[in-house]
Design brief:
Layout: E1 3-7, H1 12-23, E2 27-32, H2 47-55, E3 61-65, H3 71-85, E4 90-93, H4 109-135, E5 144-148, H5 161-181, E6 187-193, H6 199-207, H7 228-239, E7 250-253
Parallel strand pairs: 1-2, 1-4, 2-3, 4-5, 5-6, 6-7
The chain binds nicotinamide-adenine-dinucleotide.
Nicotinamide-adenine-dinucleotide (NAD) binds at residues 7-8, 10-14, 32-33, 44-45, 67-69, 94-97, 118-119, 122, 148, 150, 193, 195-196, 198-201.
């Protein structure tokens, strides 16, 4: 049985990834802050959502409350997965948060820092905690570090400068990790989702003063919003042993946003 740790696992793309991996026979530690971040203008997932996800699984999903901004908490989460299942095979940095709605120079610094710390530092903290454990496995290894970037990593989206900077940082992080991991058998890759129906997209609509999220569908050639499960399907493939030829890849899962 392969073992994964997924941050941001209580809802949205993270929860869909936890479900998909569990369906595929993985044991999964679903990590989430499960509490609000005062500097941000919308709620994070609740502890109830995290526990509902676990209750709906067949016993191979465990909940773990942890803030990705806290490096020690990421070490503790990895240790918890190892204690429970004896190993980890994949670490998925999915926790993310957004703020903006004003140009960078008008952005409150607290919100700016929160966006950088959750999206970028949080991914670095998970990599720092999980990769040594992935490397500790005997050869041939097939450990996977995965991060969730965004189309915002490669497009200048107005009023979302700190989010764009953080996600571009995630792409840079994954590429550098891939080079560092070299021929170890452990790989680092990212997905860049397009507009997907989750609370972060609802917050993006609010930041742009839009009545709802439907406007975002027009920027994707499929002309619809994506479902979290569609991103999770790709992440689950990338977490598996069959993705061994991918290292430093940033896979667009964006319904044709980047055409
Ligand atoms: N939905 C989209 O359109 C979209 C597009 C591109 C990229 N993304 C990225 O996908 C990832 C998942 O987002 P989502 O769409 O599911 O949004 P979401 O808001 O539903 O989920 C984000 C999850 O991260 C958790 N989280 C936030 N801060 C945390 C922290 N400090 N520590 C631990 N957990 C924390 C939240 O509680 C929540 O469960 C994010 O990295 C996001 O930036 C989303």
């Amino acid at each position: 049985m392969r073992v994964a740790l997924v941050t941001g696992g209580a809802r949205g793309i993270g929860a869909a990834t936890v479900r998909k991996l569990a369906e595929d026979g993985w044991a999964v530690l679903a990590c989430d802050i499960a509490a609000d971040i005062p500097e941000l203008g919308y709620p994070m997932a609740s502890e109830a959502e995290l526990h509902e996800l676990v209750a709906s699984s067949d016993g191979t999903v465990k909940a773990h409350v942890a803030d990705v901004r806290d490096a020690d908490a990421m070490h503790a989460a990895v240790a918890e997965a190892e204690r429970e299942w004896g190993r980890i095979d994949a670490a998925v940095a999915c926790a993310g948060a957004i703020a903006g709605g004003v140009p960078l120079w008008e952005m409150p610094t607290g919100a700016e820092r929160a966006v950088l710390e959750v999206n970028l530092v949080g991914s670095m903290n998970l990599a720092r905690a999980a990769i040594p454990v992935l490397l500790r496995q005997p050869e041939p290894r097939s450990g996977r570090f995965l991060a969730v970037a965004s189309t915002a990593a490669t497009h200048g989206l107005p009023m979302l400068a700190s989010y764009c900077a953080a996600k571009a940082g995630v792409v840079g992080l994954v590429r550098a990790l891939a080079a560092e991991l070299g021929c170890t058998g452990v790989t680092a890759n990212a997905v860049s989702p397009g507009s997907t129906s989750t609370p972060i997209l609802e917050e993006s609509a609010r930041l742009y003063g839009l009545p709802d999220t439907e406007e975002f569908a027009q920027h994707q050639s499929v002309n619809r919003l994506l479902e979290p499960a569609e991103i999770a399907n790709v992440l689950a493939f990338m977490a598996g042993q069959d993705s061994s030829a991918m290292n430093g890849s940033v896979v667009s899962v964006d319904g044709g946003f980047s055409l």
